[in-house]
């Protein structure tokens, strides 16, 4: 392997590592929202409220002012989570291939 090819592989390695870190961070953030929502629902579902929800889902009484609140628009869609997981797997597979090339 010549120096230019090796240099390109190192650049790709760094880009992939950064992409993987960003994807993991996004997924962790999304997972935290789902975990918090799940905890609120499993502990006291009648108190959970949603901000910015469509009218039929967002109304709540004054008694729930201190109840757990979740921004309707920020709750990650499962399809997006699944897509990001697929992107993460693909990036990790590509990184493994790059590392194998660099070791050979």
Query: Strands across the major sheet, in which order?
Result: 1-2
Q: Globular, elongated, flat, extended or rod-shaped: what is the shape?
A: rod-shaped
Strand element count: 2
How is the main sheet built? 2 strands, parallel
Could you write a compact summary of the structure shown?
The chain has 104 residues and is mainly α. The chain has helices at 3-43, 55-58, 78-103, and strands spanning 49-51, 69-71.
Task: Report on the architecture of this protein.
By secondary structure, the protein is mainly alpha-helical. It contains three helices and two strands; from the N terminus they run αβαβα. The protein has helices at 3-43, 55-58, 78-103, and strands spanning 49-51, 69-71. It has a two-stranded parallel sheet. α1 runs antiparallel to α3. The longest helix has 41 residues, at 3-43. It is rod-shaped.
């Amino acid at each position: 392997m010549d120096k230019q090819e090796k240099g390109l592989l190192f650049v790709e390695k760094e880009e992939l590592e950064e992409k993987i870190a960003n994807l993991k961070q996004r997924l962790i953030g999304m997972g935290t929202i789902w975990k918090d929502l799940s905890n609120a629902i499993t502990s006291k579902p009648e108190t959970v409220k949603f901000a910015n929800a469509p009218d039929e889902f967002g109304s709540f009484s004054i008694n729930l002012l201190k109840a757990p609140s979740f921004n309707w628009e920020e709750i990650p869609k499962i399809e997006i989570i699944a897509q990001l997981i697929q992107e993460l797997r693909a990036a990790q597979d590509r990184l493994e291939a790059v590392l194998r090339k660099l070791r050979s």
